[in-house]
Design a protein that fits this description.
The chain is of the alpha/beta class. The chain has one domain (about 5-175): Alpha-Beta Barrel (TIM Barrel). It has helices at about 15-20, 40-55, 65-70, 80-85, 100-105, 130-140, 155-160, and strands spanning about 5, 30, 60-65, 75-80, 90-95, 110-115, 145-150, 165. It has an eight-stranded parallel beta barrel with strand order 1-2-3-4-5-6-7-8, surrounded by six helices. Strand 4 (about 75-80), helix 4 (about 80-85) and strand 5 form a beta-alpha-beta unit. The two termini are about 20 Å apart.
Length: about 180
């Protein structure tokens, strides 16, 4: 599984190509959300970013159901546990913020969880950060790989003990230039 992930949305759309190129070869992944686009534009943007990501050896995950991810040619699906519980056998990624959400992710057959927000983040101003201790407590109960999300970069992931890290807003600061193992 990749150790560095980019989570897409409207705020980082203009930086995604550069961020994908900055990820370590075959060590990264893209979680494509882009909920802000109309369906046809969303699918076209997905195709363009997926092609670039795959040329660089990265995994491509679509925010949506597992069936939709299969139709779009994604490696997996990302979303709420209820949307991921059924469907074809693909990678399933879920973001969790609590033990209850972690249990729901396990019931949905998630293969990996993004635990968030670890640190303060511009993506969710004013949201209470979990901190490293609570991240580690949730990770100890996960039973699957954990990706730290929220105010993360390659340097900070070492403190967390997570298998990797993801960024939404932080991709423009060169944060993905180094693999977490190299920092």
């Amino acid at each position: 599984m990749p150790s560095a992930w980019i989570v897409s949305d409207a705020r980082n759309d203009g930086r995604l190509e550069a961020a994908l190129k900055a990820l370590p070869r075959a060590g990264g992944g893209l979680i494509f959300r882009h909920y802000h686009l109309a369906p046809a534009r969303r699918r076209a943007r997905f195709r363009a970013l997926a092609a670039l990501a795959r040329r660089r050896g990265h995994r491509v995950i679509l925010a949506g159901s597992a069936a939709e991810a299969r139709r779009w040619g994604a490696d997996g699906a990302y979303g709420a546990p209820g949307r991921l519980a059924a469907g074809p056998a693909l990678l399933r990624l879920v973001t969790v913020h609590s033990l209850a959400e972690l249990a729901a992710a396990r019931r949905a057959r998630a293969d990996m969880v993004l635990i968030s927000p670890v640190f303060a983040t511009r993506s969710h101003p004013g949201a209470r950060a979990l901190g490293v201790v609570r991240l580690r407590l949730l990770a100890a109960r996960a039973g699957m790989p954990v990706i730290a999300l929220g105010g993360m970069d390659a340097r900070r992931v070492r403190r967390t003990g997570a298998a990797g890290w993801a960024a939404i807003d932080g991709i423009g600061r060169g944060a993905h230039r180094r693999n977490a193992k190299d920092s």
